[in-house]
Amino acid sequence: MNEQSRQADLPYPKFAKHFNEFIGIGDNGHLWIEGRDVVELAETFGTPLYVISENQIRHSYRRFRDAWTDRYPDVEVMYANKANNGLAVRHILNHEGAGGDAFGVNEMTLALLAGADPKKTVLNGSNKGPGEIEIAILNGICINIDAMGELDLIDAESRRLGRDADVGIRVKLELKPLENRFATEMHGPGSLAEQGRNHKWGMPYAQTVDLVKRIQGMQHLHLKEISYHLSRMDNRTDDFAVMAREMVEWSAGLRDETGWTPPYLDLGGGWSFGRPEKTGPGGEDDENTPTYEEYAEAVCAAVREACAKFDLPLPRLRFECGRGLVGGAVIAVGRVGATKEWPEYDKRWVNVDLSENHLHPVLETWHYHMVCANKPDAPAEQVTDVVGPLCSPDILAKARELPLLDAGDLIALLDAGAYTESRAANFNALLRPATVMVCGAEADVTTERERFSDVVGRYRVPPRLLARSLAGQG
Ligand SMILES: Cc1ncc(COP(=O)(O)O)c(C=O)c1O
Fold first, then answer.
1. What is the pTM of this model?
2. Could you say which of 2.40.37.10, 2.40.50.140, 3.90.850.10, 3.40.50.80 is the CATH number of the domain covering 3-51+328-456?
């Protein structure tokens, strides 16, 4: 599908400068998200604030989906719910026809509550319990097995419930061609192959053969897929092609040893997007980052080539895309408070009400392009740290070139849509921000701002401690 027909029903705005399709600088010189001025949103809804562009999610989803469906006959895009668990986000992706990757019982329940299609949903997780297995079976969700013992649990639950269960297997690729490839250390030190070996997910080859043979003897269980998640250790298309080739080779091995050929290959997430202002870990994802179309070109070619080599039919492909769908659709907005200078050491600090509690916790490895929402085009006149209110250094931007900022100014961090709200924390008893979703000129709260009672309401004091404190006061 071409760009024009894909966007036919999306209200594509025209900004003086675009940061992406739906976020840019409006005619009044402020940052806009769709048809709303970010300065006005901050006044109306308060700060810190996440602002989501509904249409940017739709746009990114359609572009990601079309990149694959234009090149391959059978593709399912399954949104990785963990990237942003908001119910409204899930509803948008339901409308678009996306399936889902749910990690653990609560993500699965959230996805079900928001009406995700269970047949297009997989349950991942490295330590699944009987409760979540029961929910998955009752709703027809495919369970990706990630430990030998899980199989017995699934078998027992499905027999107890008298219901069939769809199962997949999360595999542990060896990624030998990536033995000397070094990039982002998402899973500790080492090459991409070493990192893949060192993390906890996936079943080694011999164990997957064993699992398949055992499942073949279980009347209630139906084998659906093998899955692998390379993650965003790197953004190079050829690394993802290596992963795709190994998945096909793994399928061929299973066919030869068990007679079962996986009908679905689930190729996980990690698909990046770049911007000229830079994003991604350490700002690596710039304008040279592969596009979705380039990923699809490389991976589809690798799958076809490997299928021909191993004499396999083309499998159906599934993608658990998270950051690629929602990352660029959200900005995090904070208001400037106190500023401080130490001219002798050429140091400046700008304090804001946003904190690393509200952004990706591994800030050193992530990069959010920062603009001043009330004057995004103002020239840089200082090099400053932008810091949050935590008792930790809480550095949101280190030695960043920015315009002069005064109390009351608004800063906005772009590409704050993935793993920010869903990982937000309460360190220093800080309240988590509200979220507003913008669609054209409409703006609705999709997450309420946290209240003090939400934070302290779970705390309890044993009566013996209370009694002693009260006695001390008396
Ligand atoms: C199993 C699985 N699938 C998909 C994803 C989504 O990854 P991304 O947001 O990089 O696309 C993750 C992220 O942690 C994951 O663990």
1. 0.96
2. 2.40.37.10
